[in-house]
Amino acid sequence: MSLIKRYLAPLALSSMVLAMPTTYAQNITIKVIGQPLATGNIQKNREQPFFEQLAAKTGLPITVEYKPMDTLGIKDTEQLRVMKTGLFDLVSLRFSQNSRDEPSLIGLDLVGGSPDYATSRKAADAWSPVLDARLQKQFGIKLLGHWPFGPQMLFCKKPITQLSDVKGMKVRVTDQIMAKFLESLGATPVPMGFSDVHQALSLGVVDCAVTGPSSANSASWTEIVTHQLPLGFQMGFNGYAISLKTWTRLKPDQQVKLQAAFTELTNDIWKYSEELYQDALRCNEGKDPCTTGKKFKVITSPVSPADIKLVGSVVDRLSFPAWAPVCDKTNPTCSADWKKAVGPILGVK
């Protein structure tokens, strides 16, 4: 071999190595939008520790930069738009709050469609593949899992003994379908982000607000309100979605590991959510055992069979008819897909 060839051969090999894709060998930084700190125990005890330990647990070549949403100055209604810009790689997505940008998010959580955790899980699991395909197409993000905060119920500054008592009251809501339901009861719905509710209740901007009992406790709504009505309208769904750009930077086996980690997390949150719901109801009343929140002196109003029946009739009578044309406007097959996937579970034909 000539002297020139002896020097050129290693250089050529080096050039080939440099020219090969290096994505898989490099560490990937994943910037995460987390749940607001104010939402409480699920964010604090499940979500944040999960992301802090994700790299070590999975062995993936990732560095996770996790920031709760209320420390970023991002509104919970802007998550999909922010993800579409590519500024973040993964989001703890608040479904109802982002439903104006993507109405199919409400398909997991129509008002009246979650009489219990088991039924809610079946309906959500049935709809999630359709939702995942939609999010990938419209926003370039892949759904990794979903979970509920738990039954979303009324908290009021005024006495409330039955649903009809909200007539004439101003009630904080998170989506248009809930707004239509409350309007049908004679209330005035007020769309509002979670972080603004405490002040709005204090100043009398709203008389009541809808959330789960654990979130109400964590955000100290329960130091202002006097009554809670433990009748769930929705489940307060959230989920995790990763940008397709970040997802495709992982090898197939790495994708499997990441998906498995999120499946384990969301399964755990489903169980934890139900535990928190029961404990928070007791904490809000000032009863024992109270292990996950602070004790307050909120009055729990009994739920009447008539109100249970009323909420149970809402999906077929109001929620689906109100949601279907909104979702079909942006996705023509939306309501038909929902009827096929979720309708049999909730008895909607």
Pattern of helices and strands: HEHEHEHEEEHEHEHEEHHEHHHH
What fold name stands as the CATH topology of the largest domain? D-Maltodextrin-Binding Protein, domain 2
How many DSSP H or I helices? 13
Strand element count: 11
Mean pLDDT: 92
Identify the CATH homologous superfamily of the largest domain. Answer: Bacterial extracellular solute-binding protein, family 7
Distance between the termini: 79 Å
List low-pLDDT spans: 1-25
- What's the alpha carbon Rg, rounded to whole Å? 23 Å
Shape: globular
- The class by helix and strand makeup works out as alpha/beta
CATH architecture of the largest domain: 3-Layer(aba) Sandwich
Specify the CATH class of the largest domain: Alpha Beta
Strand order of the largest sheet: 7-6-8-5-9-11
Largest sheet: 6 strands, mixed
Task: Kindly state the percentage of residues in helix.
Answer: 40-55%
- Domains (count): 2
